[in-house]
Amino acid sequence: MIENFFWDLIGAATIAVLGYCARLLKENRRRLALLGTSITKQKKRIRISAAYLFRIKIDERYLLILGGNIDQYQPVGGVYKFFPSAKIIREELGIERDTKFAEGPKAKDDIRITLPGKNLLKFMNWFDARIGREVDTWREFHEELVASGCLSVQNAIDTFEPEFIKRAPTKVQYKSQMGMDELLVFDIYEVILNEAAEREIRAAMNGDDERRFILVEETDITRECVSVDGVSKNIAGSAKWVISDGR
User: Fold this and answer.
1) I need a surface site. Which of 67, 206, 233, 242 has the fewest CB within 10 A?
2) Structural contact between residues 150 and 213, judged by C-beta atoms closer than 8 angstroms
3) pTM beyond cutoff 0.90
4) Do strands 73-75 and 61-66 pair parallel, antiparallel, or not at all (unpaired)?
5) Is 164:187 a contact under the CB 8 Å cutoff?
6) Where exactly are the structural domains of the chain?
7) Which is nearest to 55 in space by CA: 200, 171, 161?
8) Distance CA 135, CA 127 (A)
9) 32-81 per-position pLDDT tens digit
10) Are 180 and 174 in contact (CB under 8 A)?
11) Cα of 239 vs its chain's centroid, Å
């Protein structure tokens, strides 16, 4: 009986260990993929863009804005920024600014960068530690909705309670437009507008001849295009990550 109990105990322990390892592997498969890339592409430079995007819905449709760098509609949001305290880590990891898009003083600390592939995992470990970089999401919300005149400061403050939804499960892919591999990091937040904010945004859209803001259906996002005043307009591929899918 004691011998049977012993083997039952060993069996239960083995199952528990294997289950734990399976969960650990599942939770860290993205890290393992990044580690693999760090090894296989260690001498190549990889582009990284790390941003936060907002899921904002009005009448069950998604609010998108016209992009500043590319003529397409995209979710409200933007890239995170480095803080001055990140100077050392930027030097240690060989981080360089990616200047293919916005330049100038406002963009100089954007986490839109390139670095040696060997440092990819180290960078993501630093990024996920949330030290030395922007973690608050108010800046882009204010810039794109308040500073643009779409939403008043008071209504923005009253309705701004961003809830983190997910990290988009992206991976390193070759981007022909950039001529290099890139990793796009998207943190998705949801902001549920109060009635006053909804009314104000609707009024702003009705008086916006430039169509800077639009509401689109999920099918428009899936197709990555929408008809605006009879003209077909592109929707950024990143918009698919804000679609409500239970997360």
Assistant:
1) 206
2) yes
3) no
4) antiparallel
5) yes
6) 41-54+76-192+199-206
7) 161
8) 10
9) 777 677 777 778 899 999 999 999 999 999 999 998 778 899 999 999 99
10) yes
11) 10
